[in-house]
């Protein structure tokens, strides 16, 4: 797929400040810290709650669990199934995994949302830094595998972040990329909405999004940005095997430099009375159009 020619503004480099002097291209540039701590978001950020989210945590990051708190009344069928998984995890940990049976009001006080009778106290999740993106791109550059990335510009609602993570995980996205500033953090609410996806899809924070998109392009990844004014719809594009989708906030959309860094802009057709979609819905539509195009054509 031929790359659409665009005049890339030099302002992106100016906005990056003095740090740009140390950037040396996809292979040789200086590496930053591999991870930055997630915003605590209050005491509740140290907890993962809800049956599906805790089940995913047990399957993929059991070492992160400090303590499990389970409601001590008769469990629902789904919670009973989770208790079986918890028992297996306790045995596998040689008794190191602590489980406490507590009253429902205790769980109510621990977290702000619907906990479904189970709360896991965890070591705070770490969001990845820019060197993690370097390493990811290096790995994919050395393989022939397709690559799908999701870039969120200005998404500040943790509910929307959680929903986007869930769709990203289901669509096989390799990483979700967000700017450090003016973006939602991986709070307990975001992880709850993500239903375990926050434990599976890396969230990478970057200092300058326009500069990061330029780096991604150097690896041959096509940058496609959602814009309600774009002439071509997502359903008219022939999407390449390696693509990064950029979505902005529901109200303001992408910032100007982000938009100008894209190779292609696309819209989502809406023939009805409503002229905009929640960013998490737009995310699902976009990612699964990419999935649809990647499926083999049946005779």
UniProtKB/TrEMBL annotation:
S-adenosyl-L-methionine recorded as keyword: no
All residue ranges annotated as the RNA 2-O ribose methyltransferase substrate binding domain in the record: 47-128
Signal sequence extent: none
Classification via CDD domains: SpoU-like_RlmB
The keyword Signal is annotated on this UniProt entry: no
SUPFAM superfamilies xrefs: alpha/beta knot (SSF75217), L30e-like (SSF55315)
Gene3D superfamilies cross-referenced by the UniProt entry: 3.30.1330.30, 3.40.1280.10
One Pfam family from the record: SpoU_methylase
Keywords carried by this UniProt record: Methyltransferase, Transferase
Region (Disordered): 1-37
PANTHER family tied to this protein: 23S RRNA (GUANOSINE-2'-O-)-METHYLTRANSFERASE RLMB (PTHR46429:SF1)
UniProt name for this protein: 23S rRNA (Guanosine(2251)-2'-O)-methyltransferase RlmB
Species assigned in the record: Allohahella marinimesophila
